[in-house]
Amino acid sequence: MTAGRRDNARGADPLPSWNEGATKRAITDFVKNVTTEGSADYVRVPDRIALFDNDGTLWVEQPMYTQMAFLLEDVRRLAPQHPEWKTTEPFKFVLENDLAGLASAGVQGLMELLAATQCGMTTEEFAKTAKDWIETARHPKFERLYTQCIYQPMLELLEYLQANDFEVYIVTGGGMEFVRPWAERVYGVPLRRVVGSSLKTRFEMRDDQPVLVRTSEINLLNDGDGKPVGIHEFIGQQPIAAFGNSDGDLEMLQWTASGAGARLILLVHHTDAEREYAYDAHSPFGRLSKALDEAKARGWQVADMKRDWNTIFPALSQ
Amino acid sequence: MTAGRRDNARGADPLPSWNEGATKRAITDFVKNVTTEGSADYVRVPDRIALFDNDGTLWVEQPMYTQMAFLLEDVRRLAPQHPEWKTTEPFKFVLENDLAGLASAGVQGLMELLAATQCGMTTEEFAKTAKDWIETARHPKFERLYTQCIYQPMLELLEYLQANDFEVYIVTGGGMEFVRPWAERVYGVPLRRVVGSSLKTRFEMRDDQPVLVRTSEINLLNDGDGKPVGIHEFIGQQPIAAFGNSDGDLEMLQWTASGAGARLILLVHHTDAEREYAYDAHSPFGRLSKALDEAKARGWQVADMKRDWNTIFPALSQ
Q1: Most exposed of A208, A246, A289, B298 (fewest Cβ within 10 Å)?
Q2: What is the ipTM of this complex?
Q3: Is B196 helix (H, G, I), strand (E, B) or coil?
Q4: pLDDT tens column, A212-262
Q5: Is there a contact between A238 and A259 (Cβ–Cβ < 8 Å)?
Q6: Among the listed residues B308, B255, B270, B214, the one whose alpha carbon sits nearest the alpha carbon of residue B63
């Protein structure tokens, strides 16, 4: 951490990677209004709840969801034992490197792959596998660790909100058990504030020790209209801010926008093919179409990556 | 709050309703050990997680679970529209006032009654119904509000642990949506720290407003071996203290007891027929048999209500 970075954290500019402009101003005005006692928009601390989508909002989701890269390795490794996968979706998409096909299978497809490859072990064993993988796996384009392909402006936003007594949750369509083991280290968010898709688990005694075994049955598909379900289950009260980037976040944003009081609703729009990726309505992963229309109709914020962010990724430490 | 009560909260005696003796000493020794830096048992703040069962541990569960009393009213009210209930379990138990039958139907039966009567409405509507009911409903024996039939010694324990930077969760076999609306007011526990049984909900837009509708499908049966499942899902890390009173808490206690480090595992044993109730292995509700054997075998604490508690319920304010 440089001296400049520390100064910023002290309040000089809490969001140095955001360019000056309407989007940055909307964020800082909102935070000022809800945290200033006596303001019409003041929100008491226990009600300051903010939600962040993960894929495409906190880290890169192209050329495919990171968790999918993790899964592909397992599917390929196990394929010889499952000849039927060659002709069965979504497995054949993996074996044929058909990313568009994989994308079309959506979160449901992801969960089917998960169920076929990453179940049967205990939750502890799976957490170790996920943690070990993420510590060395690198992004094909940026050639840095996936956990370094996170967005510096969003990290600043996470930190800024938490410094203003927000309780921050990650609400991901991806697997909760995949994200939790490293969420605190990478994002500074405690693992119990990660809400995500999950498999059902089963309690068992093994060698006189209780364990939870991952079954192949889907417990929660925390994407699209499943996100408000997960939010209500885990948090049980109305959030006041939500950050997403795709149509899979639409219902989460609608849910957060509803009810009385000030709200900050923001979409990250990937417009920077040079520094990251440019995609929206026609992308196989992180498709953004309906949610962008809704943002325009409802006056939600849109962070245009090319326009609003002067930095994309954190600097790598030497 | 009396002056004496305030002094106690300041540390003179954090547990004034607990008689001096081995049980109280085990509690205070544990808290001292895990909160004293340099102690071999020291636990850093983020890992100080404690779990409390609700029925029979925090409040009275005789002559039946409080939530069942709430349900019975609805089942009776709707019975004329469902003639088949007269011959169908668990509905017939309700209509025949057969408490033993109801008890034998267990949490599963409770959830079936819930699904038949308290679904279809939005989560917000249900929360209001539960909140309204609990504000006036009274216990048949003690003739005070159910929310006043809570155990003063356990309230002190909740407060004592929170004052020592424990994050406290209520882990109930009862309905999460039933307990959450009043948990903060009655127990001082934020609603998102209530883990319980639940129905699946479905996202819908009604009059351009997003709502969650309670379906009749069971989402989680947070009892017995379902408790570690709920704990792992909501908290995702090992708790270090757990408090229960029945065989439905056994797996929660085993789960908490496992792993390395100091643990406080305690069963409330209802031994006081005069001041509350006396029951264990033969009770239709809150049956305690296997968990008591396990407590003896493993050296867990047992709070004998008659011996260990000098007060049962909070004094009623004038």
Answers
A1: A208
A2: 0.90
A3: strand
A4: 999 988 899 999 999 999 999 999 999 999 999 999 999 999 999 998 899
A5: yes
A6: B270
Which residue from A93, A138, A90, A83 is spatially nearest to A114, judged by alpha carbons?
A90
Question: Between residues 182 and 201 of chain A, which touch chain B (CB distance below 8 Å)?
Answer: 190-192, 194, 198, 200-201
Separation CA A194–CA A53 (nearest Å): 10
Q: Which two tokens stand for residue A203?
A: 């309690």
The radius of gyration of chain A from alpha carbons, rounded to an integer in Å, stands at 20
| Helix, strand or coil, per DSSP, at residue A170 | strand
- Tell me if chain A has a CB within 8 Å of the CB of B256: no
Strand ranges for B75-193 from DSSP E: 167-175
B34: CB partners within 8 A, 6+ apart = B41, B42, B43, B48, B240, B262
CA B212 to chain centre: 25
CB atoms within 10 A of CB A27: 25
Token pair 């009749």 is at which residue?
B216
Q: Among A191, A212, A251, whose Cβ lies nearest the Cβ of B210?
A: A251
String of DSSP letters for A214-256: EEEEEEE--STTHHHHHHHHHT-S--SEEEE-SGGGHHHHHHH
To 10 degrees, the CA torsion angle through A177, A179, A182, A184? Answer: -110
Six token digits for residue B60: 């009275």
The H-or-E segment that residue A125 falls in is helix A123-134
Single pTM value for the model: 0.91
Is B237 in a helix, a strand, or coil? coil
B230: its two tokens:
């709920």
**What pLDDT sits at residue A11?**
57
Q: Does the distance separating the beta carbons of A123 and B180 come in below 8 Å?
A: no
> In angstroms, what CA-CA distances link B31 with A185, B157, B239?
28, 11, 14
Work out whether strand A209-220 and strand B167-175 pair parallel, antiparallel, or are unpaired. Answer: unpaired
